[in-house]
Amino acid sequence: MWKCPNCGRIFERIGQPHTCHVKPIEEHFRGKELAKEIFDTLFARINAEVGKSEIISIPCCIHLYGKYDYLAALPKKDRLEIRFALNRIIESPRLGQSVKVTKRSYKNCIDVRSVEEIDSEIIGWIKEAYHLKDTNKVIP
Predict the structure, then answer these.
(1) 45-48: long-range contacts (C-beta < 8 A, 24 or more apart)?
(2) Reduced to 3 states, what is the DSSP secondary structure of residue 41?
(3) Contact call for residues 112 and 80 (beta carbons, < 8 A)
């Protein structure tokens, strides 16, 4: 793992290309109150049930870091889009899109439209993503 000396973000490869620019998190949520409520609930549950995380707000989206970058949140006016990598495609009607990133990694994208949708299924997937590089196995 490599930590950028300028912005403090953590990456897998030394000198990995990235932006050191940050964006105040409030700007992501301007006019997107529902997305803010969903994000706050999601972040609280992650810290309580998955593991301690740090918020990194960059121009494109909000990243959550545990030991590495494991989730991206993109606030929308009527929802919060979340993206996280797993070693599999999620088999669920909740899945909006899955993109193969590497030979063994898929970026799974889900739209969360209410606080009530943050249930044990979503928390389980996030827990799997959070610990993926620790074990490289599916976490129950």
Answers:
(1) 45/118, 45/123, 46/71, 46/123, 46/126, 46/130
(2) helix
(3) yes
Tell me which residue has tokens 């990133």: 101
pTM for this entry: 0.84
Contact indicator for 132, 87 with CB cutoff of 8 Å: yes
All residues at 6 or more sequence positions from 73 whose CB lies less than 8 Å from its CB, including other chains: 39, 42, 61, 62, 63, 64, 80, 81, 82, 83
pLDDT band at residue 21 under the 50/70/90 scheme: confident
What burial letters (b/e) apply to 4-30, b meaning 16+ CB within 10 Å?
Answer: eeeeebbeeeeeeeeeeeeeeeeebbe
Q: What is the pLDDT of residues 24-66, one digit of tens each?
A: 899 999 999 999 999 999 999 999 999 999 998 888 899 998 8
Nearest to 65 by CA among 48, 80, 84, 79: 84
Please tell me whether residue 26 adopts helix, strand or coil conformation. helix
The phi-psi region of residue 114 (left if phi > 0; otherwise alpha if psi is between -120 and 50; otherwise beta) is beta
The owner of tokens 């105040």 is: 24
- The DSSP call for residue 68 is S
